[in-house]
Every structure is written in structure tokens, then in C-alpha cells.
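User: Sequence recovery, please. Input:
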């Protein structure tokens, strides 16, 4: 789908170039969908492994590594040359954080801007990297306001608001996992060539908050013997997590689902419907999936007890 006018614009940001909302966007709403301009197997991005090797343990010497890099760059040159001239120009405008590790100008941009995409079923699944001319402009935050998932039917990456976004606000997705502690997030961001200065990374108590959020889920899993208390606690945690801007955290979804379940169980239909609706929005925005008939059935059965 295309929106006219678009719900985003690309422009100057304190991070260089960024993406901004052109209107107020509700939680769960689609912002845009984009097909990749270039897709390649993930294993071709590992510089010290021969993509044709039988095992990743077959580590070649430095000279062979450079030969592999050159081969991959030649392969990518063919793909870029097949792009329309305007797309080529936009591709080369993308940032390259791999100028010092031997990556060529194309492979470096792919490694910097690619999104992980899985093709195939559970038995044949193979990770790929997909580069987008617009989506790759979105900057990182450990407390993102945008999530994304790849829709195989339309062969496009769909970007959704994970919480309400005001017009002119910058749009952020996370390049790492928001539930990871700062040390692990920082390690995963090293290859992008920047140090994250989002509120989460500047807050010395953030790791403590992440631990508390994780523990809140574990504690409430066993709190089913007192539904009113469990509902009260899970509603408080929903409010707390929203205050932190961590709607993309998987525990947030768990609390939404739990609030919907206990709301229905206690006959508080308005509460149950509200949080089940939010849970559906989060599930679709993050993974492009519905809650599933099994979950819905479980909630209905539990509500009758």
C-alpha cells in the first residue's frame, strides 16, 4: 500500500540523515511498506568464511579472504548495475560503516544497511540480508517507536508504529534486541560505527529496569491463584513499560495478553477487549501474525473457569 501523501519524510537529523513522521500515527498503524533493492544470502557477508565452504570452521588465510571479498564485490556490482540509475544513486548515498575492514563500497553498504530476512520453511530456512533505499535511512534507538516485519506475500518490509507517534517526530527502529543489557547492545552496534546515546544507553539504571521487567513476567506466570491481584499488577506493569517506551519488548506483549485474559475472566469485558486489541496490534506490527486460534481458544476456555 502507498499513502498519499506519505506518512514519512527523509531529511536532516542530529544523527545525520533520518526519517520523520509527516502526520500523527496511531499505535499499530502501517507507516510504509518497501520492497528491497538488493537481497543476498547472509553467509556472503561473513568475510572470513568461504560461502562455498562445507563448514564455517573452514577459515581461509588472509589472502584468500581478500579474494572472497573481491568475488562478492564483483557479484554485487552486477546486481547494482541492473538497478535503475536513480536507484543506483540512492544506493550509493546510503552510509557505509565498513570502509576499514576490507569490504568494498557495495558490500560495505549492504553490511551497514541490510535487514535480516528469512526465506524458506523451518527445514530449509536460510537467513538473507535485504537492503532498502528508504527503510535503511531509519536511525537506531534502543527504545524504538517503529517495528518491522517482512511480508513474503508482497515481498516487502512493513514498518509499523509500535506506539503513538506525533507528526514531525523522528522514526526509530532498533538495530539490536531491546531486552539485552547495555553491554550486549553496545557490542552488537559496534559494526555500525556509532555509539548509541539514546535515553536507554545514558540511563545508568536501565539494565536494572530491564531485569525488573523480565522478572515481572516470570512472577505473574504463577499468580493465577489471585486473578484480581494479578490483573492489577499486570496493568501497572503495562503502564510502567509504556512509560519506558519499551512497547517493542516481548514482555509488554505478554502483559497485554495476560491483561486481556484476566479482564475476561473477571467479567471486565471492556478491559479484556481493550488489551486483547492492543495485543493483536503488537503481534501484527512486530511479526505480521495474528494471535492464533490456539491462543484465542485458550483465553476463551480460561475465561469460563
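Assistant: Recovered sequence (305 residues):
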Amino acid at each position: 500500500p502507498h499513502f498519499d501523501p506519505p506518512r514519512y519524510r527523509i531529511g536532516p537529523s542530529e544523527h545525520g540523515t533520518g526519517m520523520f513522521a509527516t502526520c500523527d500515527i496511531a499505535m499499530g498503524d502501517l507507516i510504509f511498506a518497501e520492497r528491497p533493492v538488493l537481497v543476498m544470502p547472509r553467509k556472503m557477508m561473513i568475510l572470513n568464511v568461504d560461502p562455498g565452504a562445507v563448514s564455517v570452521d573452514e577459515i581461509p588465510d588472509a589472502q584468500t579472504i581478500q579474494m572472497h571479498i573481491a568475488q562478492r564485490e564483483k557479484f554485487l556490482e552486477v546486481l547494482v548495475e541492473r538497478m535503475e540509475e536513480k536507484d543506483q544513486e540512492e544506493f550509493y548515498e546510503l552510509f557505509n560503516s565498513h570502509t576499514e575492514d576490507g569490504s568494498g563500497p557495495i558490500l560495505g553498504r549492504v553490511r551497514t544497511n541490510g535487514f535480516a530476512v528469512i526465506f524458506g520453511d523451518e527445514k530449509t530456512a536460510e537467513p538473507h540480508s535485504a537492503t532498502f533505499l528508504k527503510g535503511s535511512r531509519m536511525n537506531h534507538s534502543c527504545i524504538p517507536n517503529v517495528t518491522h516485519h517482512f511480508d513474503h506475500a508482497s515481498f516487502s518490509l512493513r514498518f509499523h508504529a509500535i506506539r503513538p507517534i506525533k507528526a514531525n517526530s523522528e522514526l526509530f527502529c532498533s538495530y539490536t534486541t531491546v531486552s539485552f543489557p547495555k553491554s550486549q547492545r553496545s557490542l552488537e552496534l559496534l559494526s555500525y560505527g556509532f555509539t548509541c546515546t539514546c535515553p536507554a544507553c545514558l540511563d545508568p539504571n536501565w539494565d536494572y529496569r530491564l531485569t525488573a521487567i523480565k522478572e515481572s513476567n516470570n512472577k505473574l506466570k504463577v499468580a493465577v491463584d489471585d486473578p484480581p491481584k494479578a490483573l492489577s499488577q499486570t496493568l501497572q506493569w503495562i503502564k510502567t513499560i509504556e512509560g519506558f517506551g519499551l512497547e517493542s519488548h516481548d514482555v509488554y506483549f505478554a502483559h497485554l495478553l495476560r491483561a486481556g485474559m484476566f479482564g475476561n475472566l473477571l467479567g471486565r469485558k471492556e478491559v479484556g477487549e481493550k488489551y486483547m486489541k492492543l495485543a493483536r496490534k503488537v503481534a501484527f506490527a512486530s511479526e505480521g501474525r495474528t494471535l492464533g486460534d490456539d491462543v484465542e481458544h485458550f483465553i476463551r476456555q480460561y475465561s469460563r473457569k
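The beta strands are 8-13, 16-21, 30-34, 38-41, 115-119, 126-131, 139-140, 146-151, 156-161, 172-173.
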